[in-house]
């Protein structure tokens, strides 16, 4: 060491204390403020400047009130407490330079400095993160508490009890949720703290041992068991949250078990029915396009499991080409919700190419919220016997209808013949008799014999009776078969019939005829005229109408007769009554020529009948 060099003098105790305080002031992570009781800030350390985002001069200028949220409800209490006790520790809200707020934990004390001035110190720690963590923890605990209380599963926490040798011998209920009360019928407030010996139910020994093993570190358990004391099925999850404890989550699955048992019984019954019935049963999932088919379905179609694909190409292959459009139309209508079910007959083409008649029934059993069909079930029934019976019945009906037509034709011919005989023979006879009586009357008048006056009066009366009988014969002839029907046609005959109806019933009847009525086969004209007579008879007997409208039209080879009245209206029961011979006759007259009859009515609109048949003229 050189002579001129001197060692530094060691610091005194006072100097060391000041250096320590300065180091704390400069390097403290907490904000330190030297203040006066009136709120002035005298000094601020670097951490305070960083915390508030302001230089020390600004902090001193703003003072305490410029840094605190003056609306903080705890501020007044904190100042009062410091004033009375000389110190305070509180959580208050502070303001940064950017206007944002933060939570700070404040420790403040009152002291006297070396000059005898009363001063205060403030140590401020930013606890925003801690507050947020505490709030999140509180929220999490609240969520857990809500989950615990309102969960649909029951929950119990049990403490395992050991004997002196360290063997598990019993357990005590530590905690339970509200669902525990509802499921067991017990009250947790009365059961918590009690052991299995005093609880309302006790586990079997083998169950208790399994649970105790879990409490000692064994694997969690998930199983289902029947509780004899409660007579209920439960699904249980058993685990150990900490050594020596057992947590049990349990759900009452009695209804599910009962439903599953009922479903198994239902499926068994369905299986037996499907095996016993001769119908082919199908269940079509429209979303996955998969189908479940009964054994008899495969027997009817000749295909094997795995060969049936529920798509359009396969159905075209399975259904006779002439019947496929109708099948597609019926299924589409039902899938769109326009029909209650899809039902029709069609010819099924088996795998071998054989053709057999089947009856198909189908119904959508599941739709989504938009009404789209999701699942459809149905059956196919082999109906060769029914089809044969239908064919025989149709042939029989056709034969009967042909016989009825021949009888009707014969009747019309007989009527025409009788009407002609009445008109010609009786008419001529009555006319000749009238002429003879007139001649005799003239001869008596020429002789001017007074005593013959009574004879002339008698002859006059006889002439009048003959004229009346002649009119009766003509009317009888017309009623049997109007001659104008054969000479003037249907339109003119209807005009005559309407006039007769109005004269007889005094009911107004409006007749609408086409300007040019085309030719009509004689037998069809007679059928329409007889139907018209039957309708007017029903109007007179049953309708209580005050007006009738008749319309005759012809178009596209069809002749249509419509009769409407404003009466009480025919009811559905009357329309479909099998004993209504008149209506049955109307239908048979139309069916004889391949025509149709439509009958409708209501109290508001009266009765409306529409008959349409082919004209029979090329």
Q: Could you write a compact summary of the structure shown?
A:
The chain is an alpha+beta fold.
Strand portion = 25-35%
Kindly identify the CATH topology of the largest domain.
Heat Shock Protein 90
Distance between the termini: 150 Å
The class by helix and strand makeup works out as: alpha+beta
How many extended strands?
A: 20
Count, helices: 19
Label the overall shape: elongated
CATH homology superfamily name of the largest domain: Histidine kinase-like ATPase, C-terminal domain
**Biggest beta-sheet profile:** 5 strands, antiparallel
CA radius of gyration is: 56 Å
Return the average pLDDT rounded to an integer: 80
- CATH architecture call of the largest domain: 2-Layer Sandwich
CATH class of the largest domain: Alpha Beta
Strand adjacency order, main sheet: 2-1-5-4-3
Query: Poorly predicted ranges (pLDDT <50, ≥5 residues)?
Result: none
Fraction of residues in H or I helices: 40-55%
Count of the separate structural domains: 5
């Amino acid at each position: 060491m050189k002579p001129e060099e001197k060692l530094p003098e060691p610091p005194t105790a006072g100097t060391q204390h000041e250096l320590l305080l300065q180091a704390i002031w400069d390097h403290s992570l907490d904000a330190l403020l030297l203040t006066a009781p009136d709120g002035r800030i005298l000094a601020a350390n670097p951490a305070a400047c960083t915390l508030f985002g302001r230089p020390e001069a600004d902090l001193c200028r703003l003072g305490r009130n410029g840094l605190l949220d003056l609306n903080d409800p705890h501020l007044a209490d904190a100042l009062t407490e410091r004033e009375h006790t000389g110190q305070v520790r509180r959580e208050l809200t502070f303001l940064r330079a950017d206007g944002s707020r933060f939570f700070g934990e404040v420790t403040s004390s009152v002291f006297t400095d070396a000059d005898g001035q009363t001063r205060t110190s403030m140590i401020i720690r930013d606890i925003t993160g801690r507050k947020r963590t505490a709030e999140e923890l509180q929220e999490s605990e609240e969520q857990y508490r809500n989950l615990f209380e309102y969960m649909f599963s029951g929950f119990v926490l049990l403490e395992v009890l050991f004997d002196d040798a360290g063997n598990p011998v019993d357990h005590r209920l530590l905690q339970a949720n509200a669902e525990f009360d509802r499921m067991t019928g017990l009250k947790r407030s009365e059961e918590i703290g009690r052991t299995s010996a005093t609880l309302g139910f006790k586990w079997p020994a083998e169950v208790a041992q399994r649970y105790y093993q879990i409490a000692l570190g064994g694997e969690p358990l998930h199983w289902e068991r029947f509780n004899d004391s409660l007579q209920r099925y439960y699904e249980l999850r058993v685990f150990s949250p900490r050594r020596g404890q057992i947590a049990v989550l349990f759900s009452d699955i009695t209804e599910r078990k009962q439903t599953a048992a009922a479903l198994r019984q239902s499926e068994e019954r369905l299986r037996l029915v499907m095996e016993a019935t001769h119908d082919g049963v199908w269940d079509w999932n429209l979303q996955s396009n998969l189908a479940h088919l009964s054994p008899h379905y495969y027997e009817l179609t000749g295909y094997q499991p795995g060969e049936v694909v529920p798509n359009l190409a396969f159905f075209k292959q399975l259904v006779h080409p002439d019947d496929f459009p109708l099948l597609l139309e019926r299924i589409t209508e039902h899938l769109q919700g326009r029909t209650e079910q899809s039902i029709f007959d069609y010819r099924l083409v088996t795998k071998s190419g054989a053709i057999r008649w089947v009856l198909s029934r189908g119904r959508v059993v599941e739709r989504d919220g938009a009404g789209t069909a999701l699942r459809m079930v149905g059956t196919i029934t082999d109906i060769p016997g029914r089809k044969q019976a239908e064919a025989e019945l149709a042939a029989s009906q056709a034969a009967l209808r042909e016989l009825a037509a021949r009888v009707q034709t014969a009747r019309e011919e007989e009527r025409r013949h009788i009407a002609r005989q009445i008109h010609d023979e009786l008419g001529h006879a009555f006319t000749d008799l009238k002429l003879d009586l007139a001649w005799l009357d003239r001869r008596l008048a020429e002789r001017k014999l007074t005593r013959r006056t009574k004879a002339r009066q008698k002859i006059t009366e006889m002439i009048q009776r003959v004229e009346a009988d002649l009119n009766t014969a003509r009317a009888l002839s017309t009623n049997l078969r109007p001659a104008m029907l054969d000479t003037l046609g249907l339109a003119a005959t209807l005009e005559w019939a309407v006039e007769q109806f109005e004269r007889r019933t005094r009911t107004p009847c409006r007749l609408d005829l086409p300007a040019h009525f085309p030719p009509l086969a004689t037998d069809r004209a007679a059928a329409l005229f007889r139907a018209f007579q039957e309708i007017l008879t029903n109007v007179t007997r049953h309708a209580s109408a005050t007006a009738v409208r008749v319309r005759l039209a012809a178009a596209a080879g069809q002749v249509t007769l419509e009769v409407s009245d404003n009466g009480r209206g025919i009811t559905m029961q009357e329309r479909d009554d099998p004993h209504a011979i008149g209506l049955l006759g109307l239908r048979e007259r139309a069916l004889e020529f391949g025509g149709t009859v439509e009958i409708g009515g209501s109290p508001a609109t009266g009765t409306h009948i529409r008959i349409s048949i082919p004209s029979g003229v090329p």
